[in-house]
Amino acid sequence: MFPHLKTKGFRLRRFAFALALAFAVAAPAGTAFADLGSAAKLLPSAELVGKGRMTFLGFKVFDAELYAPQGTYSPSAPFALKLTYLRTFKGKQIAESSVKEIRRQGGVSDAQLAKWQTQMEALFPNVSHGQSITGVRTSSGKAEFYLGNQKLGTISDPAFTKKFFAIWLGNNTRDPQLRAQLVGSGS
Q1: What is the pLDDT of residues 113-167, one digit of tens each?
Q2: Which residue of 11, 35, 98, 178 pairs with 52 in a disulfide if CB–CB is 3.0 to 4.6 A?
Q3: Concatenated DSSP letters for 26-79?
Q4: Mutual angle of helices 110-123 and 91-105, in 10-degree steps
Q5: Rg for the chain (alpha carbons), in Å?
Q6: What is the CATH class of 29-183?
Q7: What pTM value is reported for the model?
């Protein structure tokens, strides 16, 4: 009845199929690319290394995702740790909890911990269910923090960066099962 419409429809379906095929070939199977908001600019080739959930006494606290260039994590190279909160927390609570965990790791003076706590309290906002804070270890060893697409700030002390991310990624973490899910059990 309308042969020209049949031809256009066929071409459109063929184009859509070709486009879908191109995307399928371009992204290797199993690769999860970073959904890091504005933090992605610091890790342009970031891919998911691992993910897991933190629970405490049966309560869901947050979901964690670790991203690194080409999906390969190294504690001395750039990476991003994204925490998506499953409960409401005040920024001050997040800072206090972080200081408590850094203190538990040892090797940091009370004066240094007080300085870091002040810096974290100035950076970390109150969060509600579903909000994410992403911490990025930069190539220069700084820690940059983001709430979605909003940069919260930077703590430039490489010693802070190492101790802060060791809360989840270090060998002395409180939750070795979560660490294994994030970095792999062989790391």
Answers
A1: 999 999 999 999 999 999 999 999 999 999 999 998 899 999 999 999 999 999 9
A2: 178
A3: HS-TT--B---GGGGGG-TTEEEEEEEEEEETTEEEEEEEEEEETT---TTS-E
A4: 150
A5: 21
A6: alpha beta
A7: 0.80
